[in-house]
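Morning. Coffee machine broken again, so started the prediction first thing and wrote up yesterday's gels while waiting. Chain of 190 residues, entered below exactly as on the submission form.
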Amino acid sequence: MNARLDRLGLGRLAGTGERLARAVTIASVSFGRSLLWLLAAIIVGCGIWMLLPLSKGNSAEPVRPELAAVEAPPSGDASKVASPVSEAQVPATAELGRLRISSQTWRRGGLGSKALVTFTLRNDNDYAVKDVEIVCAFTRRDGSHLTDRSRVLADPVSMKSRKTFVRIPIGFVNVNADQAKCSPVAARRA
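Came back before lunch.
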């Protein structure tokens, strides 16, 4: 083969081509080994991540008194001028003392940036409720507060019953969030 290439004046390139082929072969073997090590590191990392403990935010405790408090209407005596709004126009609010979250868990979704909360809402009132607003407080592992997120649930909950809401997106959370405590803060009669 070199004799033919010599006639064309390309004899020098024939040796270069063989060296180039050898270099490409060595590089591809080296790349293959690197790729294999990278794949092994990813598998080991995922395995370690799966063994980490679950989030500790799986309790049904209320968030905090200041978050769960509902503002009371300003008190005044009846001798003052009555408001022009009739009672039929004012939305009836539900009694929050009989509305609670009995169990809850949370996980990350959306590439780890969103909180997805699963909880069971118990309604011990003698009437159905709707438009339940919940507030979730997120904390670090050491217990220090990070952020609060709220969500209004449009689904009604029948009287003297419970309803489970599965993987409700609450909002974006800090990457350091480890625990979540959710509590209902407002509701309307259905």
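The radius of gyration is 32 Å. Going to sketch it on the whiteboard this afternoon.
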